[in-house]
Amino acid sequence: MFVLLLTVFIDLVGFGIILPILPLYAQAFDATPVQITLLVAVYSAVQIISSPLWGRLSDRYGRKTILLLTLTGGALAYLWFGLASSLAGLFVARALSGAMAGNIAVAQAYMADISKADDRAGAMGRLGAAFGLGFVVGPALGGLLIGVQPGAADFSLPCLVAAGISAAAVLLGLFLLSEPPQHKKRRPGSVNFRQLRTAVGNNGIPAIIGLNFLVGFAFTALMVLFPLWCQARLGWSARQVSFGYVYIGILVAFLQGVLVGPLTRKIGGPRVLLLGASALSTGLFLVPWVNGIMTFAGDTLLLCMGTSFCHPTLTAMISQRTEAAHQGTVMGAANGLVTIGRITSPPLAGLLFTHLGPNWPMLMGGFIMLPVVASAAWMSLRFQRRQN
Description:
The protein is mostly helical.
């Protein structure tokens, strides 16, 4: 498990370097807020197709093989990103990066292979913590590399460093990562559409994917415009935005890596989901009142608590309801469907940001979270009745 987490961490360091500078890099090519959100959306659009594909291939040919292949492709995407000379070049590089982002589903399936069902939420939380730590180191490194007054040329260096870091993740996985024992015992076989539909459609999985879709939609509206919001509301520079991501990464790493597992075992997954959904909705509604570093710190804590509790819990619920032979396929399909929210959210958030003001995308996210809060409350009530 440690080698998998370390590999994911190193890969996410590269991703974290790019994330804070992406909107500002696009601005250097005279991109509008709507074009910036479309640049984010193209990543998710390609990921919809790639996630089920990589998940299915990992079921057939092994987690390690597919994980290494996607990590290599991600390194090439960062290299292309750093060498881009136009906004169109950024779009092509971002699409390639999205195509390789299906390795999230492969990593989740790998984690499901090596963890017990009753510790699945904690395992997914530790995987999320590796993501969070990557966001701690990545944005901090990006903030140091980008300089105080960056121009278009200065954005290339962080991208090239990200490519090198992802290449290091490939080497680490190649020499230290092993195939899960459970997967070695399986015989590769084909999976037709009917089998895929049956695997995804069983045991209430579509409803849980729907909740994950709403959480992703709401949180993406915040994160895609976070750098521009910080500029408009707080007057932050690119370096300050990068350090804001560091704070977010520290919170996510602690909440997912330390709290999710024990809290789930103590009070149950539905209650953790309710706590997270309530925190995320409240935090989004409170964004208009953020006017300084202290209010930013407090509201960001609520927002990070929300996403850190919701995503691992919902992912664990999907995994626990899935047959072992179809973990990669179902995880890939689930990630692909949830990614639809990450496609539709950025353009809508960009329009709201442009025409109504910087706070409106977050208020929209708060309203979208209300059905998740209601569903989690109903699941918690059912869980309590079963406990009694």
